[in-house]
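User: Hi! Is it possible to get a structure for several chains at once, not just one? Here's what I have:
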Amino acid sequence: MNAFAVVFWALAALTVGSAAVVVLARSLIYSAFALLFTFMGVAGLYLLLGADFLATTQLLVYVGGILVLLLFGVMLTHKLYDLDLRSEVTQFAPGLVIAAGLFGLLTLTALRTEWATTGGGRAPAPTTNQIGELFMGRFLMPFEAASILLLVALMGAAMIVRRKKDA
Amino acid sequence: MDEVLRSLNRFGPELILTAALLLVVLVDASGAGARNALNRLLTGLGLLAALVACPPLARPEAAGAIFSGMLQVDAMGVFFKVLLLASSLLLLLSFTFKNSRELFGLGQGEFYALLLALTLSNLLLAAANDTVMLYLSLEMVSLTSYVMVAYMKGDRKSNEASLKYVLFGAVSTGVMVYGLSLLFGLTGSTEFGKIREALFLGVSDQNRFAAYAIVLFVFAGFAFKTAVAPLHFWCPDVYEGAPTPVTALLSVAPKAAGFAVMLRFFFGSLSSPMNGPLDLVGTLDWPAMLMVISILTMTVGNVAALSQTNMKRLLAYSSIAHAGFILMGVVSLSETGARGMMVYLLAYLFMNLGAFLVVTLIHREDGTFDLRDYAGLVRRSPFLTFAMSVFVLSLVGIPPLVGYLGKLYVFAAAIEKGLYWLALAGALNAALGAYYDFRILKTMMVEEGDPAKLSFDLPLVDKAWLVVFMIANVAPILLWGTIDGWTRSSLPLLAAR
Amino acid sequence: MIGLPHYLIVSAALFSLGTLGVLTRRNSVNVLMGLELILNSANLNLVAFSRYGSGGMTGQLFAVFVIVIAAAEVAVALAIVLTLYRLKRTSNLDEADILRG
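Assistant: Yes, the chains can be modeled jointly so their relative placement is included. Here is the combined structure:
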């Protein structure tokens, strides 16, 4: 077992383990912090896969943005003196069966299928340059469309949350 | 750079909509007194200008992929662009802030901006040629819809509806993107054309399971957007909780865009034109899967509609059933099927907008969406009853109304392909649909209403729009040849690859 | 040797756990967390295929867009959760029951 494998297994365990905590924990705060570790684990896996830009984006946007937003959501929707931030669980067994079934099927698929790997994939190398060029090249349209999407999301979220009555 | 400039030439409608959107946002932010009227004007002009910019794109010289294969410009795309722009424009003009009791008093600027954004997203979705663009534009449509549904933010029902919508939709598209990631792995590409090439040589037995799983996962996103079983659960709640004009638009436009991209995906990357009729790529028998879903959708929608008394929920379930009918066109993997879908969606636009307009007007007058309160409407407003009858009969599919035309094409497509069981299921469902549709008519015309309710007269503007929708339901049968020719010429999509 | 299947199985686990969360949790914020797990699993797939498969950098670009969209979705979803909470003092989905059927 070389160092790479050790790091991989450690990150994989961190990611999947904390994901399990996210889904199974009773307290909402525990879930939120476990989610933090999941995101960090995934960022680590991205680094192992040579996606440096993406790992940084993951940390900045997911941890720094989305997770913080979720924590605000958790905090603002519970009376602060009521620290019993429990989350109830409904009908756990059917869900577990479905999830376990899905895992089995997807693992089987992953192992059996011949994925398109002719050409060997790309060796890990700094990606920021290429990503930048692709954003301005082939992916220009989605890039611009995403800016409209963000405008709408911004406007929409602000409009929904705004308290004052508008004319 | 050249590529971008060349693409921009064929991107007119979308550019106009973007400009209009930004202008509306700026005008609204300026806080000027007349900004609501100005915004309404801007939105209307923007939609109209975009509509006018569409036909030049239908010329054969203009066809092709733009923006490095992200979007496809072709005659079929133009058909859908026109359909989507027309639906937004008709909505803007016929449903106003004055005739909707739900929207009255709420901010207008954001509504117009959202309307423009939704239309823009719909156009992008209907033209998507790449899985990245597919996911992105699908989410754009969804996000804009989520916000529009939540528009009545002081209303608890509306908020619950939009929350369910968001969670349901986000999970469905999350599953879809997982499927798209697997598709990327299987084929090494995200462009529809390249995916088809990769699958063309046949899907090996080893990969077959993955391929079917991918189709199922990706279909989850489509099924959600077009409210097809088994992901239709959000539909009745959202249609009921959203302001009726929003419901009217959601039932027509995103559905059409969703079906358009479904057509592009299934016909464009999972099948190939071999010597004419479309053939399955790699012998992946997805039509069989979709056939089951189509029958399930029609049945679920119709059966659930039977017991509904809330008009918006009833129309929601009816909408689900109609989506099942439209799916018949996709299942019949043929040109007739594609044309059937297009005609049905065109018909559906007019039937549904008309029906929802009636529901809105009655709500403005009586404050109710309950069908039982529609009793005796014939005595109180014969004009409204007559209009509703036209729309309802069209929904059932009675000739010579446009609804009949839509059903004719999809049934023809199914029978042409020898899918007799599908056609039979469709026929039974059409009969089932007739039951609750006629019940609406019966309630309005035959039942005794509350004598205390007075007759009412509609403002001329509303009457005019009802007349327009009624004509739209009747006229197409006279213009059958034109429509047929229009859809026929809209289908080089499948040949131009 | 760590290869493609390893990453795919990790993402399958994330996807399944995310689905479990979405199906069994009653609190909207918990459902959103499950959703984020699902999206992360898809992203992991994309990046893994980008590294080991023939698709090239496309996978990573796709992943960037997924991240962007996830952020926008969470913002809108939480805005609605907050508004609903203000109206009703609960973010439990089971208590969002005005709409029946």
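Chain C touches chain B through 44 residues (CB under 8 Å). Chain C has one domain: 4-89.

User: Great, thank you!
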